[in-house]
Amino acid sequence: MNGKAVDFMDGAKAGVPVVLAVLPFGALFGALAVNNGFSIGETVLFSMTVFAGASQMVGIELFGQQVAPWLIVLSIFAVNFRHVLYSAALGRRIAHWSFLAKATGFFFLTDPQFAEAEHRGTAGRGVSTWWYFGMVVPLYGSFVLLSWIGAAFGNLITNPEALGLDYMLPIYFLALVMAFRGRPLWLPVVSASAVAAVIAHEMIGSPWHVSIGAIAGVLVAVVAPVKPIGGDNG
């Protein structure tokens, strides 16, 4: 295989473990969407055009409560604020991409997509469009498919939480966070984010704790001094 094909296959392989974590989450979203009045077609279209699991779950809950549209948009923005930070960090990795490729890539940017791209870039392997979209294909395809499966057959599972299916994605996110533990300031940043998110969840509620936790981590990273790797030889 040529270099592009190898990159594409590497990306697809990187997406396989993520697909396993997405399996219950996509199906759960589909089932909840239908239970909140969405048709199967609307559920699938939602996943195809938004492709943001956590935001879709928030949106589904708010749609079911007949909340004002502006509040739904604001709540989804609160959940997705972290993607602004992802985009800024990933931008330096994909500066060589065309404008169209960047715009398309940012649409498909998810938590695991960012984490894997950052790991690849840190290792000096480069983030090519072929690798990136190689990872996108199994993630996007499986999430849309599972949304349909959940919408069509989700009523067969009366209590998915009892099976622990709702814990699989948080466990995967925890693994992503732990993968960065070798970075400078990892513990202070993660600790600040966690404490701020818990406090915000108790005092303000969901989904604002997500953005507040992210901002707290960013502030710690900005103000705390970073010790150069290998020490100061000067």
Question: What would a concise description of this structure say?
Answer:
The chain has 234 residues and is mostly helical.
Describe what this molecule looks like in 3D:
- This protein has 234 residues and is mainly α.
- Helices cover 72% and strands 0% of the residues.
- It contains 11 helices and no strands.
- The chain has helices at 3-35, 40-50, 53-64, 69-80, 82-91, 99-107, 111-122, 129-153, 168-178, 186-203, 208-223.
- The protein is globular.
- It starts with a helix and ends in an 11-residue tail after the last helix.
List the helices and strands and how they pair.
Layout: H1 3-35, H2 40-50, H3 53-64, H4 69-80, H5 82-91, H6 99-107, H7 111-122, H8 129-153, H9 168-178, H10 186-203, H11 208-223
Helix pairs in contact: 1-3, 1-8, 2-8, 3-4, 4-11, 5-7, 10-11
Q: What's the total number of strands?
A: 0
**Contiguous runs where pLDDT drops below 50 for at least 5 residues:** 228-234
Helices and strands: which structural class?
mainly alpha
Shape: globular
For the termini, the CA-CA separation is: 47 Å
The overall average pLDDT, rounded, is 81
Rounded to an integer in angstroms, the radius of gyration calculated over CA atoms is 19 Å
Helix content: over 70%
Strand content: under 5%
The number of helical segments is: 11
SSE ordering: HHHHHHHHHHH
How can the largest sheet be summarized? none
